[in-house]
Design brief:
With 271 residues, the protein is an alpha+beta fold. The protein has 8 helices and 13 strands. The strands form 3 sheets. Strands 6, 7, 8, 9, 10, 11, 12 and 13 form an 8-stranded mixed sheet that branches. A 3-stranded antiparallel sheet has the order 1-3-2. Strand 12 and strand 13 form a beta hairpin. Helix 1 runs parallel beside helix 6 and helix 2 crosses helix 6. The longest helix has 21 residues. It is elongated and about 65 Å long.
Length: 271
């Protein structure tokens, strides 16, 4: 477990890859690294062709660029030189190629890489695919930030929702604990299988910049867990749209704090 050329222990680097890259939540990083093991470089066109052929997933330039932040761990603010992006071509860094000369490290790293692809293919269903997410699969706030191509992990500041680059993921705990404060007892609930009533954070009014950012979002996503007992991950219910005329100013019944009501129409009906 000696320090490697990147200044980290081999064990710690394997742990970072397993948790952050090879957790099967997004497949592009794993296939990019798989290609780079056998070839000097990988272009956007080559990776896109592979994803289209195997999964009918179309890669976009924004996602292609974000692979560098994730694989080099800039996303989690632990920068490491693993890949180099030069215009439209990825290559392995000299430092990381040297690490792969350690047979034990390469064996464990390759095992994690291959397992991530296997696990993704186990749960992948093209009929449930919604531009980066699989309906019904579970994601953490950090997973969502990464898949939405945000430059860094800001999951600790997302709370119930966050708008960035005109994308708003909403995270809902369906059954609230009786012990939470009055100001966070939001009335989020299903009206029917394709309509969801959602509330903003308390102390918010319709004309606030935060609410206007939600309204102006080009993409809103809904993630729900049944209770806190399920852990930190949320089921992806996919893309939603704001129902016309559904946005209303209201006040929380017990605390009397201002809150904004929305009604969302789910793109796909919940089973």
């Amino acid at each position: 477990d000696l320090k490697n050329q990147l200044g980290l222990s081999y064990r710690l680097l394997l742990e970072q890859f397993s948790l952050e890259i090879f957790n099967s939540k997004r497949i592009a990083e794993s296939h990019l690294l798989q290609i780079l093991l056998s070839k000097y470089s990988c272009s956007f066109e080559e990776l896109n062709e592979l994803l289209l052929k195997q999964y009918s997933i179309e890669l976009d330039q924004e996602t292609f660029q974000s692979l560098e932040w994730n694989i080099n761990f800039d996303f989690i603010k632990k920068p490491t030189s693993v890949v180099i992006l030069n215009r439209d071509q990825y290559a392995l860094s000299t430092e990381f190629k040297a690490l792969l000369e350690n047979d034990t490290f390469k064996l464990f790293w390759l095992d994690a890489l291959q397992y991530s692809i296997h696990q993704f293919e186990t749960v992948f269903n093209p009929k449930l695919w919604q531009n980066g997410f699989i309906l019904g699969q579970k994601y953490s706030r950090k997973d969502v930030c990464r898949i939405l191509n945000w430059e860094q992990d800001i999951s600790s500041t997302v709370y119930g929702y966050r708008t960035r680059n005109r994308k708003t993921p909403c995270f809902v705990t369906y059954r609230k604990s009786a012990e939470i404060s009055l100001g966070t007892q939001y009335n989020d609930h299903f009206i029917d299988q394709s309509t969801f009533a959602w509330e903003s954070r308390s102390n918010r009014k319709i004309d606030s910049s935060e609410i206007q950012n939600v309204i102006d979002s080009e993409r809103i996503l809904l993630f729900v867990k049944k209770s806190d007992g399920e852990g930190t991950d949320f089921y992806c219910l996919g893309d939603v749209s704001i129902i016309d005329g559904s946005i209303t100013q209201a006040y929380m019944p017990k605390s009397n704090e201002p809150v904004v009501h929305f009604k969302y129409k789910l793109k796909e009906t919940v089973d």
